[in-house]
Structures are given as structure tokens and as C-alpha cells.
Design a protein that fits this description.
- InterPro entries: DHquinase_II, DHquinase_II_CS, DHquinase_II_sf.
- The active site is at residues 22, 102.
- It is an enzyme of class 4 (lyase).
- It catalyses: 3-dehydroquinate = 3-dehydroshikimate + H2O.
- The longest helix has 14 residues, at 27-40.
- This protein has a 5-stranded parallel sheet, with helices on both faces.
- Helix content is 40%, strand content 18%.
- It is α/β, with parallel strands linked by helices.
- It has helices spanning 19-22, 27-40, 53-66, 82-93, 132-145; strands at 2-7, 44-49, 69-73, 98-102, 124-127.
Length: 146
């Protein structure tokens, strides 16, 4: 079973960007962990990151075409990218899982972060548990497709 893990803007800076909020794990380390967690669950995981909204939209389209489940941390696009929301909705409309993840709890942060345009079409949302949010999302996908 294939799973695409998509990370949005600024996540390439994990480990150095506000480590008090986002932790000290780098994106490269996260990629290794996520790939191993997936393998342990019998999932073939690919991790991608982009600061470009168009890349994320394109990757949602690829996931639909390939029948690939998605774990997505849309980062700042969470709050305003209707293009990404519409592309992500195609994933769930095909019966594929799309799990939204966040390292921090958006509801415990600034008011503008309280709204997600992705949550309403996601299979589920996991937030506030640091990098464990990704592990839990992969476990959820594995159980749902079990």
C-alpha cells in the first residue's frame, strides 16, 4: 500500500525554525522516521516537501491518479488555500484516505490558525503531538486499509 506524505511551506526548516514549537527533528530525520514507520506497518511511504502551493496541488492529482493515500501537513496553506482544499477533496472523493497532520495544536495558537480549509474534507486530523502526529497518521491509514 502506497502513502504519500506531503509537507507544505517552511517544513524544510524543521530542526532550526522555532524548535521550541516544532521540535529539533530536521526534515531529513523526519523523512527517515516516517519511511521506517511506514515500512513497519507494511506501507510504502514517499515523503515530499514544497513551499510552492502548485506542487502540493499537483501531488494531490498524482495521488488520485495512482490510488495513493495521503498524509499531509499543509502548514500555512491550511488556513487559506482553497486550491489545495479542492485538490485534496479529490483524494477523499476517490475513497482514499487523506490524514491532515500538524506538529503543533493550531487551536492553542494564534486565532488565524484556528481555521483549516483542509479539515472539512480530510478523513481525519491529528495535531499537537509533534512528529508523533505523522506516526499516528500512518497507523490510521494502515488500520483503515487493513
Amino acid at each position: 500500500m502506497n502513502v504519500l506524505v506531503v509537507n507544505g511551506p517552511n517544513l524544510r526548516r524543521l530542526g532550526t525554525r522555532e524548535p521550541e514549537k516544532y521540535g529539533s527533528t530536521t526534515h531529513e530525520e523526519l523523512t527517515v522516521l516516517v519511511t521506517q514507520w511506514g515500512a513497519d506497518l507494511g506501507l510504502d511511504v514517499e515523503v515530499r516537501q514544497s513551499d510552492d502551493e502548485a506542487d502540493l496541488v499537483h501531488w494531490m492529482h498524482e495521488s488520485v491518479d495512482a490510488g495513493t493515500h495521503v498524509v499531509i501537513n499543509p502548514a500555512a496553506f491550511t488556513h487559506y488555500s482553497y486550491a489545495l482544499r479542492d485538490a485534496a477533496a479529490l483524494v477523499t472523493a476517490e475513497g482514499l484516505n487523506l490524514i491532515e497532520v500538524h506538529l503543533t495544536n493550531p487551536h492553542a495558537r494564534e486565532a488565524f490558525r484556528h481555521t483549516s480549509v483542509i479539515s472539512g474534507i480530510a478523513t481525519g486530523t491529528i495535531a499537537g503531538l509533534g512528529i508523533d502526529s505523522y506516526r499516528l497518521a500512518l497507523e490510521a491509514v494502515a488500520r483503515r486499509v487493513g
